[in-house]
Amino acid sequence: MEKMKYRRVLLKLSGEALMGDSGYGISPETLSYVAEEVKTIVDRGVETALVVGGGNIFRGMAASSKGMDRASADYIGMLATVMNSLALQGALEKLDIQTRVLSAISIHEVSESYIRRRAVRHLEKGRVVIFAAGTGNPYFTTDTAAVLRAAEIHADVLLKATKVEGLYDMDPMGNADARFIDSIDYMSVLERRLHVMDTTAVSLAMENGLEMIVFNLKTPGNILRVTGGDMSIGTHIFEVGEGGDPS
Known about the structure:
The chain has 8 helices and 11 strands. By secondary structure, the chain is of the alpha/beta class. The strands form 2 sheets. It has a 9-stranded mixed sheet with strand order 4-3-5-2-1-6-10-11-9, sandwiched between helices. Strands 7-8 form a two-stranded antiparallel ribbon.
């Protein structure tokens, strides 16, 4: 069996990643694809946790900008992440992967409440843990929740799945001159205002010395390759002084 570089990982997915080619909602085909990709590392003994956003169903910040109370909008967004988490759980369990959804808000009928020790115990037993409802607090993104949970469970790396190859010096979707960045430190991300995550998430990752890899989810096998230590895939973000010369 191929040896993995990382023993415990947290995979961050955007809600939009579950839409597939649709403009809204959840694509069953995309769910199955993500589940199959996750299975490749679970089968190799990697302890795997996931955080998924809710933007495919509801965006709290967008609703807030149109007059909805921000806290109420964010709570609705948390519920959207629970829906996505349950959908992912179903897709994973179809592949005979034991899965637990742990929610930061209490919804006992469909999930367990988040308790850090319980989450770690599930991981140690080989179960995939899906963290739902963000941090459980308004005004915090699921990116921040992903970094927080990764730190709490002592994940070796945070894998941020995107629709592009990694981090660029400008938006590659609208700029042909965008330059790919293969490695960079967190302070440079903040100073250059690179939009890999919000500043709270980036600062928290930097303070906790959490390694992050930003990569393209749409390329089959990428999750396995980055978990195995393939440095040629994605952008690697390190603490200052750990990753060599940032590009």
